[in-house]
């Protein structure tokens, strides 16, 4: 019953009184705890932020951490950035992904070196969201790491496709006329790796590089 009530509260645009919800953040029942953490994301209150930061500091539960990071991101809690950054070293890929998404939203281009470093993460999900962050906030300094990531992805045929390449194409498209390396990469993809692309990736490639006779069928 308590879980259902919290879920209903979470559906509200703004929650004026967060104190009863804060009490539920330490509930021993995971479903109640997680619903409370999610609901706090709707609270525009420093006490709610502090309660979520406390979760990040003290909890070892993967879902506690992910939900708390998501709620802090929703609140625009920039003061939580120093607490979120250490979670890039967390052993769980989903926690690292949540941390990256939050820093992307809260910190923007100021953390471009972190997004570039995250392209070396062992989690495909983290790599994908790192590329999205680079696409939105990257500059010429990120060309090399994105170039290398594309080469690595296409070094062999994949059993599982992701949207990494689409995000990479969209980023490289911004600099295609400023770096000869990008043109060489595109020619390499067209001449040797076209069959390695999924239909969505081919569509993304052609959408980004349809000028200067770069489009390929």
Write the layout of secondary structure elements.
Elements: H1 2-10, H2 19-24, H3 30-40, H4 46-58, H5 62-75, H6 81-84, H7 93-107, H8 112-118, H9 124-137, H10 143-153, H11 164-173, H12 180-193, H13 199-208
Task: Based on the model shown, name its key terms.
mainly alpha; Leucine-rich Repeat Variant; 13 helices; elongated; 217 residues
Report the helical percentage: 55-70%
Number of strands: 0
Q: If you compute it from the alpha carbons, what radius of gyration comes out, rounded to the nearest whole angstrom? A: 21 Å
Known CATH architecture of the largest domain: Alpha Horseshoe
Q: What is the number of independent domains? A: 2
Q: What's this entry about, in short?
A:
With 217 residues, the protein is mainly α. The protein is 64% helix and 0% strand.
Description:
The chain is an all-alpha fold. It folds into 2 domains: 108 residues, Leucine-rich Repeat Variant, CATH 1.25.10.10; 79 residues, no CATH class. Helix content is 64%, strand content 0%. The longest helix is centred in the middle third of the chain and has 15 residues. The chain is elongated.
